[in-house]
User: What shape does this take?
Amino acid sequence: MIDLTSIPEDKDDLDRYEVENNFQSWSYQPDESPLRVVSAEGVRFTTEDGRERLDFSSCFISHNIGHQDERVVDAICEQARTLTSFAPSLSTKPRAKLAKMLSEVTPGDLERSFISLGGAEANEAAIKICHQFTGRRKIITRYRTYHGGTATAMSLSAGDSRNWAQAQGGAEVVKVPLPYCYRCSFGQTYPSCDLRCATHVEEVIELEGGSEQVGGIIAEPVTGANGIIVPPPEYFPMLREICDRWGILLIADEVMTGFGRTGKWFAMDHWDVVPDILTVAKGLTCGYVPLGATVVRKHIGDAFKETFFSHGATYAGHALGCATALSVIPIYQTDNLIENSEKMGQYMLEKAQELKEKHACVGDVRGLGLFVGLELVKNKQTKVPLTAVDAKIRKGPNPKMKIAAKLSELGIMTMAANPVNVIAIAPPLIANKDEIDEGIALLDQALEVGDSFAEE
Assistant: This one.
């Protein structure tokens, strides 16, 4: 064993550790170390080569308030000097205050929270609560969705090729199509479709045993990693009515869309729909310290006064994470970030539409707030995807990965290596018009690579 107090840290050493000792997420393990980040501020980050780059993904939809906000860093340091964490059977001031704050900012009568360490954990807790509250095992999920990398969350991540390697479990999963108007599973056209994607859910509920068998349905209000798919405005109100008719819980996974990303506090606010369970993470602390939360409506929380709540974790309600969230959440309000997300999001969507008109490889553009996706195709008329659905898990380059490589070369980070045929752009909510113009201009250059694979 080497001296653990003096592990070598030259560049070559660190590169070797990355290759030999670290698992890279969702990838074949590389022969070379990825770029090393040494600092970040606002909407930019700097790599070890000294180059400043533009973060046009908010570190995969987490750093909503930008990087290294001094107010949050100071709050973390202050809490660390006082109490970093304690056993969850006892209260801490940050945990108590955060639970109250979440009840204030979340929609409707969402009132009681289980505070965990991330989005996957939040969704795991949501499914357990659903099972325990309803006494039913079946959970409806939607194709082209991602709910996290843990066992149950991954089982619910239907139509995501990363799901294929996982042993399924934690719930009896039933899968339905989502409202994907660009590629409607029912061959319909909105609005003459009468929202077949919603009425189909009710048919499935009945066929799967109705209120005796089906406990809940989990859905991302705006599909994130699998395509930035925005539903028609009638979809979630209809889904709410269906769930109410059958006594089924509506679970909204707002891990990506929560806290201003779509131009509202929560995406469900766009349709005035209150879910029974809401899960959040990324924007809760903006990635400064890991944290997630599962927030339930009052009657669900109250039911566990008489029913044993069979879930928990050593780091539940972690004091340092809660203090971070207490610092982050008011910034959305004081800095008008949600209003900026709405305004700049509309501008970014307009600029992205211009890219669609210019580039042969861009078949569709859609988004809500600072959450915009560009779907890549070989042919705009036939809508043939630029890459196959399993491209993410197959070895070797593909057209979208070549676009991603070009973006990196140009000095910009987007969600271009996500599982589907969509480049997702989601800068921090502090982004201004000049920074959006800069990002769109770089994306314009990179899309020329995609055009070389498109069919005229």
